[in-house]
Specification:
- The complex is a heterodimer of chains A (about 270) and B (about 260).
- With about 270 residues, chain A is mostly helical.
- Chain A has twelve helices and no strands.
- The longest helix of chain A is centred in the C-terminal third of the chain and has 38 residues.
- The two termini of chain A are about 25 Å apart.
- Chain B is an alpha/beta fold.
- Helix content of chain B is about 35%, strand content about 25%.
- Chain B has eight helices and ten strands.
- In chain B, the strands form two sheets. Chain B has a six-stranded mixed β-sheet with strand order 6-7-8-3-9-10, with helices on both faces.
- Chain B is globular, with a radius of gyration of 18 Å.
- The two termini of chain B are about 35 Å apart.
- Classes of the chains: A mainly alpha (about 270), B alpha/beta (about 260).
- At the A-B interface, helix 8 and helix 9 of A face strand 6 and helix 2 of B.
Chain lengths: ~270, ~260
Amino acid sequence: MASSEKISVLARLWAKLIHSWMFIAFFVGFFVFWEWSVVLFDIPRYILTPPTLVVEKGWADIDRLLYYTYVTGLETVTGYVIAIVLALPLGLAIAFSSILRRTIYPFIVCVEMVPKIAFAPLFISWLGFGLLPKVIIVFLVCFFPIVLNAILAFNSLSEELSQFSRSTGAGAMRTFFKIRLPAATPQCFVGFKYGAINATVGAAIAEFIGSDEGLGFYIQIVTGNMRPDLAFAGIFFLTILGLALFGCVTLAERLLIPWHISVRRQKT
Amino acid sequence: MSHLIELSAVSKTFGTGADAVHAFGPVDLSIDDGEFFSLLGPSGCGKSTLLLMIGGLLEPSEGDITLAGRRVDGPQTDIGIMFQDNTLVPWRTVRGNVELQLEMRGMPPANHRDDVDALLRSVHLEDFSERFPYELSGGMQQRAAFCQAMVHGPRTMLLDEPLGKLDAMTREQIRTDLQNLWIQQRPTVAFVTHSIEEAIQLSNRVAVITPRPGTIEKIIPIDLPFPRDLDVKNSPEFTHYVRDTQEIFRSYGVI
């Protein structure tokens, strides 16, 4: 039984591999092209290094890379979690309060138009090189998509479900937990995903502007030292960080709303 | 016989001033206890507006509505309501959706397990109770929605084109199920439709509603025996009712 299950898992993996062979071939082809073009076009090593060298030199500097991944990861996750914790209740409040909808909501829409990253130098000059300004910048780039999607989520209950709720005579709390909240969850996740995509970008840029550790700091320093190999290694870890965060959000989505169409499509 | 639903001089206007749209009325109407009453009319004639007003979910601009002797001045709870787009929630199974009606009312579902089972059986959904709505066909979804709307045993059912989105063959089957449920439990039903045949097949009386602003042109008592199966539908009397009703709509240029 167990062995046959193992075989079927392997078979499915193999089928997936076969199914996506074009993608894999393209991916491998891309790196082969990169590797060879450096030699072929005689590109100086201080401009571009072949991927094999990125792996080799990156491995040699792995301790620093891992530590900086931790530093940037901490900034990213802290800012992101704070953004969710503050944006959800605010979105909920705006969705249900006509006063807030006429005051804070237009303000948020206006601020959303401002490229938040433009505030980064200011925050660094106000708060210095430490963790706090980075967390604030990550928070800013995540907060708005989450709050705007939360408002949308809690405002878009169908007319039918709203009439149904009223006809049952259920109180506001019961209606919220049995109908409004689950109905709003998928749209909230749209905001969480946007936020997750923005989060690592915010952290990296904040570090470019002023920091003494982290992957953004690392990429900037090694680029200044004409070490594109290490810059690529830094970019690789930054990508992994972004993917990990996005993966966690997607996993949470699968666990919390397995019934939703977006999740069902991924499964099939 | 006591009049369960009574409307006197009810009308509804949306908006105010120059933008005001007179959607419905004025209408006087009595629907009897246990009656199946259809509101038949073209799209946009205000049939659904009337239904929402009876349920207390929309306030009439003028006039009074009483339900079981009490004036309607807010959402009514002794009703079962159903729309063209059903109120099944995607995060609950068929059973869960039926139980949602009970839970929203503070009735513990554990005490009503047999009722839910019986109801699902009566619409042939007993094997699908643990399925999610998206796993069901449109017809099965509407059957589940009937169960959701009836599980608390309401005396009044407000049905707003519940079969509107179904294909002709499924409609036919579900009409039969709906009729059987009504015959078993005898709630008062206000049924909105724009299908002449459907109205005549299901109803004790059919109110023909004119285009906007909707008013009741004529109330036609349908004097045919229940249950109304295919034989009844093929009878000359049935055809006669259909033709009479078509004449009314033709005189309005609707068809």
